[in-house]
Amino acid sequence: MKTKLLSCLLASALLSSPLQAADMDKVRQAIADPKGMAAPGCVAGAFRNGTTLFVTSSGAADIAAGKPLDGDTLFYAASVSKQFTALAVAILATRNKIDLDADVRKYLPDLPAYEVPVTVRMLLNMTSGIRDSLEVLRLAGVTDWSGTKKDTAVKLLYRQKETNFRPGTDYRYSNGAYLLLAELVERVSGMPFADFAKLSILKPLGMERSHFLNDHRPSVANVAHGYVLKDDIYEIRDTYPSFSGSGGLMLSVNDLARFDHDIAVGHKVWTPAVRKILLEPGKFADGKPVMIGDSGLAYAAGLMVGQRRGQYYVGHGGGAEAFRHMYARLPERGLGVAVFCNRADKDPQQQSDAVMNAVEANILAAPEAAGPTSAKPDGRYASEELMATYDIVTAGDQLTANVSSPFVTEATKFEFTRKGDKWEGAYGSALAFDSDGQGFTISSERAKAIRFRRMD
């Protein structure tokens, strides 16, 4: 018994140990820009079992003013906000104020009566078919969402006589669904959504500077401008909506650390009952899980959950015209990572993966390709469908396919790079070898699974 206890304490100590200098260098490299304060940038944070491991930043919150990004900088959180909207709904559900399986028209009677009732849970799980509110605004001629009021967006949704599909039968990401959820919280709580979120989520967790917008632009200090690169010049694009639900949260990474602490150990707001609602994968009417493409993740409630590269993964990204964010957790490792960027030219998924890999010794690294049973897949392969042969030559993580066919008069070759268990090439092409080593399939964005068999 003592040995087991000692092992548990040692494991806990190791998991809480600070990063080595080399690992922190990897984190900084993931978010760095050689232009420094002449460019926008990113703030990255990592949290272990509710304790902040580090918060580091690169670049400017305001280039003209020379204001650097830091852990207290407020970002427009975009769709990272959705988990907070879902949390507000879950809190009211645990208080028996909202029935998740009720027709949403019980709370929002102005919504049309669709062919199949849309439930609150369908809104949470993105299976409602409710049209995207930002796209509806765009099609109505709104070119700058920053000047649009919430009532305008809600009224347009109320005028939509049809859904994208029969509710409960498909998945389609919808900002409209989460705008309606915020409206529902307002109706049930009797106060503006921003006020309810402050009283029930932000204030109890000590998230002092973070707040939801309520038809007003942020007026506090240390707010990041968003930037897009145009003709080698970074231009400000603070074009995000000033209403909340699908987005609207102004959030700092230091405040997000307080939120992460509550998820991991505090449970003041993230109670067990709330957790069950937020992390339960959505289901279609036929009982199948709401899977997101071939990602291995299901849509739950403002969160994507499931197995990713061998790890139980929970997360959600966010993007506006000039902002890119990711907040993700590996609950079984007690690890949370946030990367928030005020620039449009960053990939937050890639960056957050890099931070997780720095903290956890490449825990999310793509698995090595199994390849064929032979030592190397080199050789000649033929496709009846293409009337072509590919002579495959590999060198490390690079693969070259030399193409011969009746249609080829000059030497033609395709180049691929190993990515996990596939080889990826130009134009979205991917080549995957059979497990028996006797062939492969090649796919592109518009031509799937064309088969080749080994000739030699």
Automatic annotation (TrEMBL):
It is an enzyme of class 3 (hydrolase). Its EC number is 3.1.1.103. Pfam families: Beta-lactamase (PF00144). The keyword Hydrolase applies. One of its GO terms (molecular function) is hydrolase activity. Keywords: Hydrolase, Signal. Residues 1-21 form the signal peptide. InterPro entries: AmpC-like (IPR050491), Beta-lactam-related (IPR001466), Beta-lactam/transpept-like (IPR012338). It comes from the Bacteria. Gene3D superfamilies: DD-peptidase/beta-lactamase superfamily. Residues 36-353 form the Beta-lactamase-related domain. The keyword Zinc-finger does not apply. PANTHER family: BETA-LACTAMASE-RELATED DOMAIN-CONTAINING PROTEIN, D-ALANYL-D-ALANINE-CARBOXYPEPTIDASE/ENDOPEPTIDASE AMPH. This is Serine hydrolase domain-containing protein.
